[in-house]
Amino acid sequence: MFKKLALGAAITGLLMATGCASIVSDSSYPVSINSTPGGANFTIINEAGFDVHSGVTPDTVTLPASDGFFSSASYTVKYQMAGYNEQSFLIKAGMDGWYVGNILVGGLIGWLIVDPATGAMWKLPESAHVTLQPNTAAAPMGGLSIASIDEVPEEMKSQLVRVK
């Protein structure tokens, strides 16, 4: 009888000393980075303005969901591809549903200390996807192109036609 009581007390103590989200969730999540069309270069920038990852779509990157105690992380993904306009996508962590489980399991310690400290109270979305828009200044050979004079190669400047 004493062993069962001691075991029950130990389990209850462990549950009270941890946060619900810390038990069930992670503090870093894989995020799928995609674009249409694929093959775009991307850079992920954190809130402080630092590049945290770069690559080519499609890719999967694991990012921390927290930016500090009680602070969710957010990232900007910048996509670049020749012939397409640069685009950005905001990845922002939201509240993890398991964090609310502290009301039942983790108590105040999990609610106010463990989950905020570990970052398990936040969750990132599973993917970041953009459809890149073609650059309107790009046209097939022989077609009409609009560009600033600085973008025209010297050997082609003699072929330019002034539009009034």
Would you count the extended β strands for me? 11
The percentage helix is: 10-25%
- The low-confidence runs, each spanning 5 or more residues with pLDDT under 50, are 13-22
Count of alpha/pi helices: 3
Question: Which term fits the overall shape?
Answer: elongated
Describe the structure.
This protein has 164 residues and is α+β, with helices and mostly antiparallel strands. It has one domain: Immunoglobulin-like, CATH 2.60.40. Helix content is 20%, strand content 33%. The chain is built from three helices and eleven strands; from the N terminus they run H-H-E-E-E-E-E-E-E-E-E-H-E-E. The strands form four sheets. A four-stranded antiparallel sheet has the order 3-2-7-8, with no helix packed on it. A three-stranded mixed sheet has the order 4-1-11, with no helix packed on it.
Quickly describe the structure.
This protein has 164 residues and is of the alpha+beta class. It is 20% helix and 33% strand. The chain has helices at residues 2-17, 20-24, 107-118; strands spanning 28-36, 41-46, 51-56, 59-64, 66-68, 71-72, 74-80, 87-92, 94-95, 122-123, 127-131.
List keywords for this structure.
164 residues; alpha+beta; Immunoglobulin-like; 3-stranded mixed beta sheet; 33% strand
Describe the secondary structure blueprint for this structure.
Layout: H1 2-17, H2 20-24, E1 28-36, E2 41-46, E3 51-56, E4 59-64, E5 66-68, E6 71-72, E7 74-80, E8 87-92, E9 94-95, H3 107-118, E10 122-123, E11 127-131
Parallel strand pairs: 1-11
Antiparallel strand pairs: 1-4, 2-3, 2-7, 5-6, 7-8, 9-10
